[in-house]
Specification:
The protein is an alpha+beta fold. It has 15 helices and 9 strands. Strands 3-2-1-4-5-9-8-7-6 form a 9-stranded mixed β-sheet, sandwiched between helices.
């Protein structure tokens, strides 16, 4: 954590465009206040300001506060001055230091998806939509790009891929991002892809669906060892997932349109509920992976990591209830929340397996003691 605090000096040096004679509070001071207050269960600017007032002496262990504690209005105003791109660089450097898995043979799954910041709107204006790349191994957000609408994800994904290092990893994207240009960009970045199919790729979805509907085809794939079955039980229901993958794609008329396409796959999920009712769901994919059912199934299953991150932003940090109108301030808070999310995953507080929301609550009971513990990691 000391390293993280040192990096915040970079924001001070590169981003502070305020007139020096009128500056009363350093950028680093503002950022540390926001970071620690967010960890301690503060969700809006007023709560962040109250936290700073109550814990001024504790904060002075880490920051100067040469002119006392800034008001919540000042904190919000200063956060609106910082470019989210610079904040994202801090996140990237933090991840590089913590990435102890680097160099291992196990490929990481990087899931890309978007989330609308519903509180970031006023008088009919469009809220920011954040497209994020999340690593499945540790739930860390590798990078993000802000766009005005969900439909702009298609143009944002290539930009996001240019911002992060994905070489040697596997990229998963939902059907909206299954575009020939995005597949080509992923291969240019020397990564692999597992892309979901729906009806927005012409006949491709229907062709793959029809292929896997054939019983003999599935039996052949299973016999060849390119099949995996898992059973999970949760919430009083069971889920059986069956994965199929094949390199038999010479018949696929559209295969030449997709850079590096080597296989197609299917996930069949059978849900048995407590009342005995059964439902079956099918999902279809194209991939640059050669036959590797373990890796393919992990990529399909792990796409949920980015959705879990978005869920935590809403449930653990109540992001959608925060009505910050300024785009930069809202996006910077989104980055701070993602950083706090990762920090909370790293620490055990009070008792094992405590939820992240409960960890924030516990920290709020004795913030000086518990944040001291967190900062010592």
């Amino acid at each position: 954590m000391d390293t993280l605090l040192e990096w915040l000096e970079y924001v001070e040096e590169s981003e502070d465009s305020r007139q020096s004679g009128k500056v009363r509070h350093r950028l680093k001071d503002i950022l540390v206040i926001v970071l620690l207050a967010t960890l301690a269960n503060a969700d809006d600017w007023v709560e962040i300001g109250i936290f700073a007032q109550y814990h001024e002496e504790f904060l002075r262990k880490y920051i100067r506060l040469e002119n006392g504690v800034p008001s919540h209005d000042t904190i919000q105003r200063v956060m609106a001055l910082i470019s989210p791109d610079v904040m994202q660089q801090i996140m990237a450097r933090w991840y590089e230091v913590l990435n102890s898995e680097e160099g291992e043979k196990l490929k990481k799954i990087i899931a890309i998806d978007g989330k609308t910041m519903r509180g970031n709107t006023q008088n009919g204006s469009k809220p920011s939509h954040i497209v994020s790349a999340c690593c499945d191994e540790d739930g860390f957000c590798l990078g993000q790009v802000a766009v005005e609408e969900k439909s702009n994800e298609i143009t944002a994904i290539p930009e996001l891929l240019d911002r992060i290092n994905v070489k040697g990893q596997v990229i998963t994207i939902d059907a909206m991002g299954t575009q020939t240009g995005i597949a080509e960009k992923i291969r240019q970045k020397r990564a692999d892809y597992v892309l979901a199919l729906k009806g927005n790729q012409g006949t491709l979805h229907d062709d793959v669906k029809l292929f896997f509907q054939d019983d003999e085809t599935r039996k052949k794939i299973e016999k060849a060892g390119h099949y995996k079955r898992t059973v999970e039980k949760a919430h009083s229901q069971s889920e059986v997932r069956e994965y199929y993958q094949t390199e038999d794609i010479k018949w696929l008329t559209q295969r030449s349109n997709w850079k590096g396409l080597k296989s197609i796959g299917m996930e069949q999920k059978t849900i048995t509920r407590p009342d005995g009712t059964i439902s079956i769901e099918y999902r279809y994919y194209i991939s640059s992976l050669k036959n590797d059912i373990e890796l393919f199934s992990r990529a399909v299953r792990r796409h949920w990591s980015v959705e879990v991150m978005h869920w935590h932003l809403d449930v653990t940090f109540r992001e959608d209830a925060n009505h910050t109108i300024d785009k930069f301030a809202a996006q910077n808070m989104n980055i701070i929340r993602k950083l706090c999310l990762h920090i909370l995953k790293m620490v055990e507080i009070f008792r094992p397996k405590l939820s992240l929301r409960k960890k924030r609550f516990v920290i709020a009971q004795d913030p000086e003691k518990l944040l001291e513990f967190v900062m010592s990691i």
